Amino acid sequence: VNGLRVLDAGCGPGQYADWLVERGAEVVAIDVTPRMVELAKDRLGDRATVFQHDLNQPLAFAEDASFDLVIAPLVLDYIADWVPVFSEFARVLKPGGQFVFSCGHPHGDYDWLQNKRGLDIDYFKLEQPTVTWGGFGETRPTITFYRRPLNMILNPIMAAGLTLDHILEPLPTEEFAKIDPDNDATL
């Protein structure tokens, strides 16, 4: 990433932006949540540009073909319609640029909500469940997100004119299985 101009879309507290800057990237980091923007600014100081922006809105701050890389780590599950978002990412990417994102696995989320949470979920529909997450201490956060089938993950890529190069489906580590055997997807 040395020398690349990178858009960290949904930067959260700035962990990826920090990693990128440490390796020589010029980073613009955005997040919709004011507290996350504050945390990212505290972490990055003047080493990156960090500001609040809602990915449901056009990236008016960015010129066409102005980024080498766009990353969106675990942010897209909070956005209903990916086509306009992906289209904006395609617009701001330079020719040959890359877009890397991560999201909930469509079957994993379906199984977790249906079988572990007892919700009546239709795999083939876009749904917006609200659940309480564990692993964060006594005050468990309540999260509302979008769960979608595989076609609603892949089709927006093509609709935006992007090309799919690689899909990675990592398995949980042995350490994760020991820490949280109830959520070990390798069982």
Strand order of the largest sheet: 3-2-1-4-5
Distance between the termini: 36 Å
Helix content: 25-40%
Main beta-sheet annotation: 5 strands, parallel
Low confidence ranges:
none
Number of strands: 7
Whole-number average pLDDT? Answer: 91
Kindly provide the radius of gyration, computed on alpha-carbon positions and rounded to a whole number of angstroms: 17 Å
Globally, the shape reads globular
3D structure, described in words:
With 187 residues, the protein is of the alpha/beta class. 30% of the residues lie in helices and 20% in strands. The protein has helices at 15-22, 34-44, 82-92, 106-116, 151-159, 174-179, and strands at 5-9, 26-31, 49-52, 67-73, 93-102, 130-132, 142-144. Strand 1 (5-9), helix 1 and strand 2 (26-31) form a beta-alpha-beta unit. It is globular and about 45 Å long. The mean pLDDT is 91.
